């Protein structure tokens, strides 16, 4: 899957199927991306008009990916700071299979290892707790 040496855009592309299933609190993500100037009013309206959270998540990922590396970085940083990524329950028959799959697709671990720079654009409305990479 992903490694911390990938660009933010490559990570979003490679982890797309997992992000679609694991992103939560899409309104928080949308508001943060709008405040940072990543998404416009019209894009936010179009995303909110999607029929369900899966389609809204896909629309967010598509819009951000089209805007390039800086926008993708801001999305990953927003996910990291707002903790809007949910770890789904494993659907495996045995513990060994589940642990192998979890290691391969652990989005929490990868995002926590992403080399986020200090960013003065992040305002006081963002959750900014330091987290170590386990």
From TrEMBL:
Residues 4-79 form the CARD domain. This is CARD domain-containing protein. It holds the Pfam family CARD. It comes from Ataeniobius toweri. CDD domains: CARD. InterPro entries: CARD (IPR001315), DEATH-like_dom_sf (IPR011029).
């Amino acid at each position: 899957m992903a490694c911390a040496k990938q660009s933010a855009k490559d990570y979003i592309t490679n982890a797309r199927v997992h992000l679609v299933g694991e992103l939560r609190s899409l309104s928080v993500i949308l508001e943060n991306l709008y405040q940072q100037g990543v998404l416009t009013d019209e894009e936010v309206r179009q995303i909110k008009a999607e029929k369900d959270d899966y389609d809204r998540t896909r629309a967010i990922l598509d819009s951000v990916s089209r805007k390039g590396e800086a926008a993708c970085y801001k999305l990953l940083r927003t996910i990291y700071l707002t903790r809007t990524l949910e770890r789904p329950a494993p659907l495996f028959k045995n513990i060994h299979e589940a642990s192998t799959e979890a290691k391969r697709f652990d989005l929490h671990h990868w995002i926590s290892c992403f080399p986020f720079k200090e960013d003065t654009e992040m305002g006081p409305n963002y959750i900014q707790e330091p987290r170590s990479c386990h």
